Amino acid sequence: MFAVILGFLTAFTLTYLALPVIIRIARDKHLYDVPNERSAHREPTPALGGIGIFGGTVCAVILWMPGGQFWTIQYVLAALVIIFFIGVKDDLMPLSPTKKFIGQVTAALIVVYKSGLKVSSLYGILGVYELPDLFSFVLTIVIIVGIINAFNLIDGINGLAGSIGLLASLIWGGWFFLVGHYDLAVLAACLAGAITAFLKFNFTPARIFMGDTGSMMIGLISAVFAIRFIELQREIPQGGSYSFNAAPAIALGILILPVFDTLRVFARRLWQGRSPFTPDRAHIHHLLLDGGLTHMQATAVLVVINLIFIAVAFLCRHFGNGQLILMELTLALSLSLLAYQWIKYRRSNGKLSA
What we know:
By secondary structure, this protein is an all-alpha fold. It is 69% helix and 0% strand. It has one domain (2-348). The radius of gyration is 20 Å and the shape is globular.
């Protein structure tokens, strides 16, 4: 318990003290994220907050990881270093999508190959259970890289990616603590502490953004938490208070906003005959901004919706994975269509410009 609390406080303090220095240096050196036609912000703003999140999290983990358990997360830290380097490079001087993707895959390979983290079963989804080793290996890489990019893509308005990352860290950190996996609980607490400090400077009016460094880091750790949460169901007593037969569906519920929004936007671009990686303003947070909400109003709405999905996932866990995932995706799609109709209604009534 003390390691968890101290990890949170250490990460919070280090990040809180580091960010004003990073902001000052970024302004002195004119290291800004300059707005363009797709940007949701209007003023040039530093995008190096991920440096503070990384430093606070990693230092706190090293200090407070329980004795003898550091080896369980050392490969995650090594992967975070890879993410840190490509993130900082991209925040300062944009990388090509190919180079960025190679860096993400490299980080995922470190975690999967060295730590043995993998999705070993589909737990009855589409009637599939145990997976062949090679398929399991490839699927785990795809999931990790997908979640990294999902967090990267929702980082478009003040407070959103940080708030969702904080929410997921607190939920999974609490569960890991209750089932006795203190290494993961400490990692979650450290990340939560760093994000909490960052949000102080990221809420409107934002003084700094987390940039790709922060969003990809949160995405990588969230992917590790999701997979470990699912796979640990094999180790804990079945039928207990902390055992969930629908663990994959619950994991999806926790990450529903970044995962579904990414799938929706990619599908929309493909339907329009464009590359799924073509940037646009079709993300759900853009829709809410276009509907007249402020950054913080849109963030609050989306966090509340994500909380509702989490509650639904836990309350309906007896449905089984296939049914619950279908229900989550259907509900998410319905809410997206509702957002489109809401904007269309406001425009037709002259409340918004076309």
